[in-house]
Amino acid sequence: MNDGAECPPPRPAGTGATLELLVHGVGGATPEHMLDDPRTVRVSGDDTAAVFRRADDVEAENRPTGPATDGRPVPEAYVWCNLTSGNGARALWLLLLPFMVANLAHWMRPSAHDRARTVRLYGLLVRLVGLSLTVLLVAAACEVALDLTAWQCAGTRACAERHTWLGFLSPTASGDGWWSPPGRRLALASLVPTVLVGLLWYLSRRTWSAYESEQPLVREPGEDTARSALGRPGFWYGRRLVARLRGAHTAAGLLTVAAAVVRATARYDRGTGGPAALQTLGRLLEVALVLGAAAVVAVICRRGRSERHLDRKLDATLVRHLPLGALVLLVLTLVHACWERPGWASDGRLPGDAAFGGITLAQGLLVIVLAVVAHLLYRSDPDPRTAMRGLAGPAVALLACALGGVMSGGVSQRVADWLDGTRASIPGAPVVLTWQASVIPPLLVVLLLFAAWQAWRTLRLARAERAVVEQDYAGEADDPDRTRRIARTRAMATLTDRGPLFVAALSAVSLVLGTAALVGAMTTGRTPSDAARTTHPFVHGAADTAQALGSWLIGFGFILFVTLGRRAYKDMSARRTVGVLWDVGTFWPRAAHPFSPPCYAERAVPDLTWRITTWTRSTGGRLVISGHSQGSVLAAAAAWQLTPAVRKRVALLTYGSPLERLYGRWFPAHFGPAALAALHDEVDCWRNLYRVTDPIGGPVQVPAGDGPQVDCEPMRDPLAHARSDLHPLPAPILGHSDYQADPAFDRERGRLLDRLRPGLPGQRPGGSL
């Protein structure tokens, strides 16, 4: 899509062209399935995302008799599944899950009126939480590579002999090679976290170019009339902010590596009274690191996204010079570490406890302040449907920090066990990380109890729902087993509405256990099992079991995580299982963390906007955007981006839509009641289909006002309760799928098209459709 490309001139109105633009949802779909035809042709797009038509409809607009002789619109499928799925290597994106969760917290802020400064403060706090996660990740890599491997294991005879690949680093090896001194070992090992930072920078830059670099359609001045932030010209083009954050986080990662090295060398130089030149250089490096950290924080504190206009500028000084300066400082630190220091031997641990404890404490304070700010925003515009009364963002930010802490602690503990096992020849991972890994078993116990409680509630609801099912299918043959199955499906579908309760419970337990772990590590200075050694044998045994079990659970969880991710990207059924949360997480632009997985909507929404605008201008015809599940969210976002003249030729048909049930509750500032009501006013006509058996879709609950009602009556599912002449075989319970198989779908689509009369905008009747 070329910048500023001109739309083709409109044809005379009233050509009779009618188009249905289908947008699939979670799990993806093939164009053959969407168009119900084995012969499809790509009419626009590439291998990543494209628009397809049936082979017989490629030139439908040029037919003398019109594009659809049977009265139906020409179907056209927009296939975007390759934006979120692909080869199994993309499963590694799951390792960036804490970054994605933190980015979600940015978009979960409550809606507010006349609170611009408070809104900016909310965004700033989330960006600082994201920065702390980057520092935590790199610090964990430093712990594994520098402390556990190069400092402890390579510096210990027993550990180094068990791992022959560390022989050239061991000072006890024959001849004590050039890399044997502790400083040089640290300098060499620092390449591992440095490469990790470089890989994150590369992936962020590459995914931006591949997924998010498509510029939205350029509008004329005065065409921005949407009342939602999603309709602003620059909402789906955050290049400037992502580039600035990428530079700041890259610099922060490099500075973290440099700090891990210089902390050890400077401490030794001061403690042993080394050469004055080395001590002075060490102090200068420490001062430079502090100044560099201050510069990074200052960049993070700058204004966030520029949404009111299409911002193509780049802060070249920050994007290039800040990471380059951090890299130069790291090189100087490594040169300083490689200096000859006779008599220096590695002993104990590197000073990591204070660093990890400080990161955890800072994250806790940021989340607390964020909760206060979110509460103030919620009080300015309260809405009972908002998840957790406006505290969803802080809760999710806390979960991101907890997930990062557990992953860091678990990986460090597993590497320590792998290097040393039960021999206790090396001190092992920092005490703080050991405590964090030890809270996993009690956390899982609490979650299992919560799951059992929810299962009991669902069972009771299913029993109560049987009477409702019998009433809905009154007059049909009685089938108790069928009734129980339908009631159970309806009860299971309500679990989505209890998501806020689950997140609240999980975040509360994580906060309590995380605080206990931090206090235990800081007050005792020992691992859980060592701290409980002098207490009752049962307490000591429980602490020892939690410590060991937590370490193994992290290792098992890591393998399960990657395996599930690979299967989700390659197997359609597994993708549907985890696709909801993943597609919600990667729908939003990277506004808080540049290393989170790429935002597919920054490609999909401009694609849809360009296609709708160019087709309506070139044909003067009518168009229905038909969105299923997550496709309905993309359709709504594209409708917001359209100009008023184009919106008057467009109808919106959503089905199985999470617009209100998920997005409206969790992202009230952008999909709350006010935003959806504005969309209803701006789009000429909109209808929403849903089923009570659908665990994802639901009503959008937009008040009718002066226009028609958006929500239809709930669709029957299944269509028949028992066998009949019309349904000789049992009708399936469809739930979230196959909305187009219901006769109500064609009926509602036809009524939408009837309101979009050729040649003039549809008029809003006073009653319902």
UniProtKB/TrEMBL annotation:
Residues 747-769 are annotated as: Disordered. The chain crosses the membrane at residues 91-109, 121-141, 186-203, 247-266, 281-301, 322-339, 359-378, 390-412, 432-453, 501-525, 545-565. Signal peptide: none annotated. It comes from the Bacteria. Residues 747-757 have a biased composition (Basic and acidic residues). This is Integral membrane protein. Keywords: Membrane, Transmembrane, Transmembrane helix.
